[in-house]
Amino acid sequence: MDPSAANAQAVERLMEARPVLRGVAPAREVIDGFDGRKLLHAGPPIDWERASGPLRGAVIGAAFYEGWATSEDEAASMAADGGIELAPCHHHRAVGPMAGIVSPSMAVYVVENDTHGNRAFSTLNEGYGRVLRYGAYSPEVLERLRFMNDEMAPVLQAALAASDAGIDLRALLAEALHMGDEGHNRNKAGSILFLKHLAPLVVEVAPSSGLAARILRFLGENALSVLNPVMAACKAMADAAHGVEGSTLVTAMARNGTDFGIRISGMGDEWFTAPAATPDGLYFSGFSSADANPDIGDSTITETAGIGGFAMAAAPAIVTFVSGKPSDAMAATLEMYEITVAEHRHFTIPVLDFRGTPTGIDLRKVVELGIAPRINTGIAHRQAGVGQVGAGLVRPSLDVFERALVAYAERYGFA
Amino acid sequence: MDPSAANAQAVERLMEARPVLRGVAPAREVIDGFDGRKLLHAGPPIDWERASGPLRGAVIGAAFYEGWATSEDEAASMAADGGIELAPCHHHRAVGPMAGIVSPSMAVYVVENDTHGNRAFSTLNEGYGRVLRYGAYSPEVLERLRFMNDEMAPVLQAALAASDAGIDLRALLAEALHMGDEGHNRNKAGSILFLKHLAPLVVEVAPSSGLAARILRFLGENALSVLNPVMAACKAMADAAHGVEGSTLVTAMARNGTDFGIRISGMGDEWFTAPAATPDGLYFSGFSSADANPDIGDSTITETAGIGGFAMAAAPAIVTFVSGKPSDAMAATLEMYEITVAEHRHFTIPVLDFRGTPTGIDLRKVVELGIAPRINTGIAHRQAGVGQVGAGLVRPSLDVFERALVAYAERYGFA
What we know:
The structure is a homodimer of 415-residue chains. Chain A folds into 2 domains: 17-230, CATH 3.90.1710.10; 241-412, CATH 3.90.1700.10. Helices cover 38% and strands 20% of the residues of chain A. Chain A contains 14 helices and 15 strands. Chain A has a 4-stranded antiparallel sheet with strand order 5-4-1-6. Chain A has a 4-stranded antiparallel sheet with strand order 9-8-7-11. Chain A has a 3-stranded antiparallel sheet with strand order 10-15-14, with no helix packed on it. The mean pLDDT of chain A is 97. Chains A and B meet through helix 7 and helix 8 of A and helix 7 and helix 8 of B.
């Protein structure tokens, strides 16, 4: 079977999806099947025993946050014996950066794809430093989560409810790509565009000017504040491309800190996994590659949707953060055209004469050319409770793509 | 005399100037010698008789705004017979975009150069469309000016008074250049960085949440809101470089819509002028080059300070606004290295491997190489009362540089 027509259909759905941020709500109220002592996590399925340090740390922190446990041992035993159920974000139309933990009472952004009707969810971004998503769970981490979820989220919820149009995240991303962002690790422009849209609404609905100012500072000082809505937008786009019979388009790439996994449009809900690689990058003062956990997070949904590492030519300044030279950023994008099926109609790169970003990874091309997708990423400490130690670049093993193609061939005949 | 050492000193002062936005105040309260029926305008000195349409329109609008006149004829006669005094912004440490009109009761940004102690001023930016600076003076133009000066300015004044640090405009510009701005016609990133700094302060000091929200919308929806503070910052930098004995550094380039003029660091307050050229560019629907007024505005202070047309390689997306291809934007910057004496220490261009912007125009190099500075600019309708008709690119005549060099040689001996 020749998957070209199926891939063209799938990538068309990916590009024409129009994700709009429409609301904020407690996760348990909007995510189906999310009740009891259940936590969502990044990447393909995993149990406590095989979970990496940062994922374990985030599970412990979420158990504290939900009031399920008061000590690390208590939380760990609960998670180990099934007293806390773990499930991938991706199984619940959600995505989470790094450990990606979503607990039932955390607030999530609600993104609707106006073209195809599907929805996607992501938590609010915590900012830099010691944060849950990197496996930290100290009192300051929990206190910040309480501010975000108990004080900020209801205001954002009311602000978005007061906006007829919501926030068109595809348009925001298109603009941010003309402003030096690539949408994964560099979201400086997108985050202040996000602030620009929200600020007047927040001021109008906040119960006090003090809280409004605190929220505007929190969002404005966090150059990643739009990352989570962007990830949900990419998830909404990728989900729209999923399930096209015969398509070899990659519709999810995700890591749980132990395994890297992909899903293929024409291959249903099956995950193809392999051990996660460890990123190369730049480390914060006092840390080195010896501290790095293997790659972790659902944020590779950005590369899956044609931005992030695939759009680095739009964001040459990112090399100060992830290593390399501006010419490397350009080369990364140019190489990704080799393994994709389209140039994005809405996401363009000015310095490449407004060429569309390389979009829609074709499993066949990855395997035939031996070119793995390029991902840029944060780097978590390998131990629970520490946090971020750097940022860098990584490529997943080709093995996972090869096995997916074998499975495809078994199902559809050789591609 | 060899001006190299003097130029090195002058450009060092230009680069090390650190302009910080510290306040907003009525022009008459902070600008020396600004009282009575006096208006400041862009460019070198000019009288009513020689003034172009857009400058005349802005003078009429300012006379209406100040309550000096109630009809066009009344305002025109007043300006023609000296009942309204006209003086260049540059003679009062101020700069203004396009017609550049400052009237005594208009609010101005107060920018302080923390390194050398000098100050500079600029009005608040009106946004796009029918605006005074392009020579429009309809009721909506005056109503907007009243909102800006009577309602918004006092809040910005209180907001900046509440900020110990002020807003470091050199740092803001450095960041914006990594986000696809060049600082003259593309200030998308800088304007929302500006909003990010101001938003929480505005919320804290505004008398009502309604006014706070209106101000945040006004600033946020205007992708040029930071242009005027940026121009004042550039003026503060250029003034710091002015007055170095023997220096051939250009410390002002400005146009009043009739004449283009420059000042030279080592040549005191003398203007060297020639007729202003007319920009080439892209026109708004319904307009063409036949509608274009010759080049107008003090905004060329940006190119004088090493950004704007000189930094276009940082802003490839600008070509959608001013015409050309991204490679033209790159070529513009590369050419400007030929006529400048330094690469800016603080303003860098990621795609050029973080090379500093071409900074400090050397009069000698312009004349010897026959390369005029590249300027990008808005285009005003040639008739009073119409407004902006497009945006484009322009180079001043070499003649003005040649005459300045002759004058320099007469004063200092041949350079």
